[in-house]
Amino acid sequence: MNARNPLSFAAVLCVAFAVPAPAASGVDPRIAPGFESIQIRDLRADLTFLSSDVLEGRMSLAHGSEVAVQFIAAEFAKAGLTPASGRSFLQPVPLIEYLPDLQHTQLTLRRGATAERYAFLEDFVGFFPRDIEVEAPVVFAGFGITAPQFHYDDYAGLDARGKIVLVFDHEPQEADAASIFNGVGNTTAANVRLKVLNAQRHGAVGALIVGEPNRKHPSNLERLARIPGIMERFTRRPSQALTDNNGIEIPYFTVNDRVGAALLANAGRTPAELQAALDKTLKPVSMPLRQTVVAMSVVNLSMRRATTSNVVGLLEGSDPRLKGETIVFGGHFDHEGVWDGKTYPGADDNGTGTAGVMELARAFARNAERPKRTLVFAVFAAEERGLLGSYFYAANPLRPFAGIRAVINFDMIGRNEAPSPQTEGLTEIAADTSNELGLIGTINSPDYRTVVERENEHVGLKLTYKWDQDSALNVFQRSDQFPFAIRDVPAVWWFTGFHPDYHQPSDTVEKINFEKMRKILQLAYLAGWSFADSATPPRYVPAPVPARMSKQ
After folding, report:
1. pLDDT of 193-211, one tens digit each?
2. Which of the listed residues 40, 181, 307, 369 has the most CB atoms within 10 Å of its CB?
3. pTM of the predicted model, to two decimals?
4. Is 502's pLDDT higher than 80?
């Protein structure tokens, strides 16, 4: 795919693909060769293959996904990377694939002699990678958050042992720009998986999540339903999980507002009043719910074990003292596969991120000098199935996790943001996004942001941080930087925004803005070098101060 014979191809490539490399004026001459080597022709060639029909939409565990794995590994080898494991570029990721039985997966509320059974998808949604049944009294635990960094604990004084826990989704005070929870944005505490793990740590046997009653945005299920066809794919095709289910041992369902109100009928206050009290005081309103017992039953039609792979290579750092520390460049290679006879090529999501990691690997390898710290290039599996590859890597790192100093995660870096059903009414879109790059997660690392802004003086992108002020779309939680961020690593998602082709068969290569993509990778090259070579890497700030960060 990437043969480069200058005698036979140079003229054709210059006319058809190449944009002249920018002058390296102002770029340190030591690193200019790698900077200038990032070219549109390489990106177009790689992305054309990754989004071709041959790869069948790169669905996790499907044939096209495994072709992508071998292609990426081959390109890492050609670039001159070293396998991170010392033996192979492939890190096996063990999965369970299971098909839920929508008819027999059930949720029932019991009060005395009365019982009400709720309907899957209409009233609740829930998956679990093994059959399980639990029945227990219900306790209400506010937002389900224990966050010492914010001096906040919904479980203070609550006994959840042997109980099913009901919690609100998201975080308190989302409409308050002065909130300790990142103002009107989200923090890691809003994540459902972390809420379930927190319930589990407090002894719960099950968890129920309901949209916060006073929300000013769609619930997560309502948001998903805006994306054409996604709910059908979500419920009819097999789900996937890590074999240890990412540490989750208890079932959890997401319920609608009607079920939430029924569960809280004996609380003494309405759901809206409970949330209002939490938003006002940040003091627990948690309680046992009198005469409220719930039965949760998960049944699967089929289950199988299978293995996919992360692809991980490295360039060792030049400093004997610092080469044990790492900078990670990441992105995911999987997408939506083939559904109902249509291929979902995933050119932007996330062919662009995959091609970007590969091109940066080549760029750093071509540069004669190496930064002090080691560079890790990781293309993750099964992101679309729940960030499974990156969660697995974070739990099973191929270099010491404590040595990770920064993560640059690429996911959808090739398009211009445009109005779409998912984002309608939920975010403001600039009139011209053709040169715009979003950075998500710098709220936890002002140092990271400072470095990127400084290096951007050589590239000239328009940087936006608006997604750090988002609480409607849960963007912060939805890509592969998140498993690193929750472990206190400065990890930022580089993102050019949603568009109408998101998770559609129309996400094709001819719609990619390759010039912007090249500039993004040049900026990542410069920032990554700075992270890897500077005496002081960026710091992680567990409790961000919203006022410190602008709302650009």
Report:
1. 999 999 999 999 999 999 9
2. 181
3. 0.93
4. yes
